[in-house]
Amino acid sequence: MRLILTLLFFTCSVFLFGQQSFEYLFKHTANQWILDGVQDEDDNFYFVGSIKGNDYEAGYIIKICADGDTISKIVTNKDYIGFFSEIQILDDNELLIMGQTSSETSADENTMWFLKMNNDLGILDEKFYTIPKPYYYKIVLGYSLINQAGEIVIAGTAKYFPHHDFCMVKINSDLDTLMTRFYPNEFSQQVDDFVAFPNSTNYLMIGGKLGLYSSFIQAFTIDSALNITGIYNTPIDLTGSASVGNWISDDRYLMTCTLSDTTEYGNDDDFSIAVQIMDTAGVIHKHLYMGKPDTTDYSPPGKGIVYANDTTIYVGGFSTINGAFYDPIPTWFELYMIDTSLNLLGYSQYGGDANYTLFGMVPCNDGGCLMFGRRYGVENGPNEKDIYIKKVIRKEINIITSIKQITVAAMKKNPYPNPVSELIHIPIKATLQAGSFQLQIFDNSGRMIFDKQFTKTGNQLDVNVSTLKPGIYFFLVNDGLKLNINGKFVKH
Fold this sequence. Notes:
Blueprint: E1 4-7, E2 22-26, E3 31-39, E4 45-52, E5 57-64, E6 70-75, E7 82-89, E8 95-103, E9 106-117, E10 123-130, E11 138-146, E12 152-160, E13 163-171, E14 177-183, E15 188-196, E16 203-210, E17 215-222, E18 228-233, E19 238-247, E20 252-260, E21 271-279, E22 284-290, E23 296-298, E24 305-309, E25 312-320, E26 332-338, E27 344-351, E28 355-363, E29 369-376, E30 386-392, E31 400-404, E32 423-427, H1 430-433, E33 437-443, E34 448-454, E35 460-464, E36 471-478, E37 483-491
Antiparallel strand pairs: 1-6, 2-30, 3-4, 4-5, 5-6, 7-8, 8-9, 9-10, 11-12, 12-13, 13-14, 15-16, 16-17, 17-18, 19-20, 20-21, 21-22, 23-25, 24-25, 25-26, 26-27, 28-29, 29-30, 31-35, 32-35, 33-34, 33-36, 36-37
């Protein structure tokens, strides 16, 4: 018999709920994971994942209501192990939850698990489908979308020793399977993201080709019948955890991923977060690398880029120290804000009192974004990792700039005021006034937190730094040919 437990968490911290920012910490003696999340039109958030104890693993659902209340449920399939990995909101505002579970014939998750729920997390329907291929012993449903016909198309992997193959599943809103496809390959494969082409019935899947010692990202074009019509390699230093943002045109899109430093100065632990304007043939047309020297920064395994509008695109990641994924060493969620031209408009980090690992992000109705992942502190037991959720709005990280023309008598030689709490004024040299120039700001660790190209004319650049944390910052202003202005300021 299925066991469903409803748990209310009163150990969470909440700040400024509503159309503002907030954070939650869900604590439990078991190990918790969130793998996907959505927000409905009534501003409720839903998350699905796994909760795992010493002798069980079950599907896990959390709802954060618009008024700040929380509901969670643990859902088991009899005495079998299983977990949820995807969630979609259907046209009637019902929830479609996708996962995998073991069965009578296997101790591994060889069965697809589909549930339909109402907004109160009551189960309306539930169906199971054991994968048909006898040599696959496990399936993981990774990414899903609802196509133009209202069908749910799911991309994932089917496992056999020692490799993983791509698989795709199509179901309808009644949870009936319409098509299941497997794609054998000599190399192991993983799915990083799956999206629909704009104005088309075709799909784009971003995946990883896993070799014995390395991996790299490939782009797959797929038609409406789930046939792979093209496979395109991306540069080898793009190593994984890729995520597609918005489409810039019918054949170009934003993509974020983890970048490996393959230069002679890099090392195996030097990774950063990269954003590219990529076309469907895997060609990079522009890029932005974010991080700081001699650190390890990763894109999340789930959604790492979410789009609000052309000037508000959030890119997430997390930092580690010496690759410490499972030690309670202080690390951080990282959040960057960019636009479609890859100008870096703001940065902030969250955590630092424990080990924080970002798993994914959700776009919010108010133009903000929500980050979810794991927190593991020294107070936790060895198998007790808690869920951390942080919602951020644009004004909390956006560095606002403007250019103006002031009289020569009013101009000053150096940036002022310094120290600064809100608005700093940077005089612009005459050589820059007639053409374009670039402003970059770095924190004291060397991480670039702002990078924007300007084409307007004027002789003073005003920069609102009120969103920055107190500390020492450095700035560079140049016209692309030589360094024209550099300096530092202290933020109160």
